[in-house]
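During the first year of the project, the team set up a workflow for recording each protein of interest as an amino acid sequence followed immediately by a discrete structure-token representation. This format lets reviewers and collaborators read both layers of information side by side without switching files. As required by the reporting guidelines, we include two representative entries from the current panel. The first entry is reproduced here exactly as it appears in our internal archive.
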Amino acid sequence: MRYVPRMLGDTVRRALRTFPAVLVTGARQAGKTTFLRQELSSSHRYVSLEQPEVRARATADPVGFFEDHPPPVILDEIQYAPALLHYVKTRIDDRRRPGQWLLTGSQSFEVMRGGPWRPEELEYKSELRQLLREGIMVDKGTYWFRSPHPTV
């Protein structure tokens, strides 16, 4: 199947020039991973935390995990290892550089809020984007575009 470039690409690239971390959230199978891998694989390494062995390594030894996967990096499915966000925050605080961290998640922050981290801690460092299954990209309630394609 041929990849159709997303209008969201320019917005994410613009955010990466400004913010150290950019988070793309949305429903499962909305196309977040495909979008980021197609649009940003030349500039960011890719790591999926959906794979149990990768997730186990990341949570057992976060310091070693980040040594093996330094930025710029896409951390896909961050909801599987939310404790890693503390390490991302620390690394941003230590070396603030735009475009280093691309994070994806399928769960909403309200679901993740019960975890060991608070999303508002990263809010000033991330430009939050939500990619919905219908192809609507929402930024804190503002609709940016509607895709002409049935799924994004």
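The second entry, processed by the same pipeline in the following quarter, appears below.
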Amino acid sequence: MKHVLVTTDFSELGDQAIAPAADLARRLGAQLTIAHVVTAEKPPAPDANAPYFKVAQRLWQADQELEAGVKASLEERAAQCGGEVQVGVARGGAIDGILELVRERGIDLIVMSSQGRSGLSRILLGSVAEELSRRSPVPVLIWKNPAVQPPQA
């Protein structure tokens, strides 16, 4: 294993997998990347000749600020891990975004936390961790912190 990817949605639960992933990467002598998927699609670059240029430009700038904020949040978490930690931002759906990072960066292992839904809520809402483990070309380690109680259905 040479490259470990840990994902976060910036929630308390989402961040729970970062420290164990950093420890695992250190023990394996592997590179660690902390990543987040922005579900909003990137807007097209504003066209100066279009009648809606000013609106498109504001939207573009807001998106740039969003992405910069996401990167800054990831870098804060990376700094807490110590050592050299990369950050990654993908766009689109959570699973497709993670799989894009896996392909682009040569990831060998994905680590993520899970809410541990069960019963009806799992059937209705699904599980990103479960679907990712089915679709991923690399192993997925799912971190469940026993101190965090899953939401009730």
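For the second entry, the following points were noted during internal review. Residues 121-125 have pLDDT under 50 and may be disordered. The beta strands are 3-7, 31-38, 85-91, 109-113, 140-143. Both points are flagged for discussion at the upcoming steering committee meeting.
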